[in-house]
């Protein structure tokens, strides 16, 4: 049994920490881990980290728990590791975290488990300050807490002006949730609203301070991405698509939903106005819909 004083020390840490045995079965879960993940110690101790708990994914949305897991590899070879991953929060959205993994050894030097430290790297204080500022300007969508259409249009107008005056590059990503009507019809609008909130939280986790993500209307979202070229816009679009597809939403009825998004993207051209760039992104979005959904079309 863990020494009580050592357990108290772990619980005073600001970083999330959990300990596992060689089978990656969780044996300790500190208070910061509860705060960062939404899961209490009672809910996770005794389970494996891949058992519908953290389910780390990389930037491409690929699950690491069943593949290149830093904790598994460290337990296997004893080498400490660090990685930037996206953690599954109990509420369903993904949180960007930096993880540090160390092997646990007994008095003989044998590896008997692993320790994973993790911290939120989404700059929440800056995001919250920006949310407060936008709320004061009535530019926030009340459901998703993203920018509303009014604010997105104002930002897009400013981006276009900077493009024409200074040739500053930017891109637009247009997202539409696939088969969203079926979610509302099957589970009701309360669950539909939960899906929109969860996707909004995932988009916020992908945003840099100078990007703008907003709800365009209904189940449509838009991202204005500053200082980006076409290859990097494609990479970001695929990252977002993968993260949305990897997001799991726990419904009040006990079922777990997964949703996907079709995405259309484009980079700004010197002759663009608001109507032309939106029309081009929207056309690419419908190309993605017609190509089987859950994909990205870029021009």
Terminal CA distance: 59 Å
Uncertain spans, ≥5 residues at pLDDT below 50?
none
What fraction, in percent, of the residue positions are helical?
Answer: 25-40%
Q: Strand count, sense and closure of the main sheet?
A: 5 strands, antiparallel
Stated plainly, the CATH topology of the largest domain is called: Alpha-Beta Plaits
Strand order of the largest sheet: 2-1-5-4-3
The CATH top-level class label of the largest domain? Alpha Beta
Number of strand elements: 12
Which structural class is indicated by helix and strand composition? alpha+beta
If helices are DSSP runs of H or I spanning 4 or more residues, what is the number of helices? 10
State the order of secondary-structure elements, H for helix, E for strand. HEEHHHEEEHHEHHEEHEEEHE
Strand proportion: 25-35%
Mean pLDDT: 89
CATH architecture of the largest domain: 2-Layer Sandwich
Give the CA-based shape: elongated
CATH superfamily of the largest domain: Reverse transcriptase/Diguanylate cyclase domain
Overall tally of domains: 2
Pfam families: GGDEF, PAS_9
GO molecular function, one term: catalytic activity
Protein name: Diguanylate cyclase with PAS/PAC sensor
Organism: Desulfatibacillum aliphaticivorans
Question: Can you characterise this structure?
Answer:
- The protein is 40% helix and 26% strand.
- The chain has helices at residues 4-12, 31-37, 41-44, 70-77, 124-136, 149-166, 180-187, 189-206, 230-246, 274-290; strands at 16-21, 26-29, 81-88, 94-105, 111-120, 170-177, 212-217, 220-226, 248-250, 256-258, 261-267, 296-298.
- Helix 7 (180-187) packs across helix 8.
- GO terms for molecular function: catalytic activity.
- Residues 81-133 form the PAC domain.
- InterPro entries: DGC-Regulatory_Protein, GGDEF_dom, Nucleotide_cyclase, PAS, PAS-assoc_C, PAS-like_dom_sf, Rev_trsase/Diguanyl_cyclase.
- Pfam families: GGDEF, PAS_9.
């Amino acid at each position: 049994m863990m020494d009580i004083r050592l357990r108290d020390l772990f619980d005073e840490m600001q970083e999330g920490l959990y300990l596992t045995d060689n089978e990656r079965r969780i044996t300790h879960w500190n208070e910061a881990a509860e705060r960062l993940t939404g899961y209490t110690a009672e809910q996770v101790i005794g389970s494996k980290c891949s058992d519908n708990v953290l389910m780390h994914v990389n930037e491409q949305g690929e699950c690491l728990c069943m593949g290149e897991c830093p904790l598994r590899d460290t337990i296997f070879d004893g080498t400490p590791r660090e990685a930037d991953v996206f953690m599954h929060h109990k509420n369903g959205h993904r949180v960007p975290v930096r993880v540090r993994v160390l092997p646990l050894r007994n008095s003989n030097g044998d590896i008997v488990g692993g320790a994973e430290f993790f911290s939120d790297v989404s700059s929440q204080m800056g995001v919250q300050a920006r949310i407060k500022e936008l709320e004061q300007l009535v530019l926030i969508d009340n459901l998703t807490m993203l920018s509303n259409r009014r604010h997105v249009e104002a930002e897009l107008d400013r981006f276009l002006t900077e493009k024409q005056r200074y040739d500053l590059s930017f891109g637009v990503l247009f997202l539409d949730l696939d088969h969203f009507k079926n979610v509302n019809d099957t589970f009701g609008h309360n669950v539909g609203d939960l899906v929109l909130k969860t996707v909004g939280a995932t988009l916020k986790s992908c945003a840099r301070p100078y990007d703008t993500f907003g709800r365009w209307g209904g189940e449509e979202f838009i991202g204005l991405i500053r200082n980006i070229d076409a290859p990097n816009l494609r990479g970001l679009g695929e990252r977002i698509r993968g993260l949305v597809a990897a997001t799991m939403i726990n419904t009040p009825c006990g079922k777990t939903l997964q949703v996907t998004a079709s995405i259309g993207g484009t980079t700004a051209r010197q002759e663009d106005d608001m109507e032309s760039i939106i029309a081009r992104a929207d056309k690419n979005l419908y190309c993605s819909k017609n190509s089987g959904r859950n994909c990205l079309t870029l021009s």
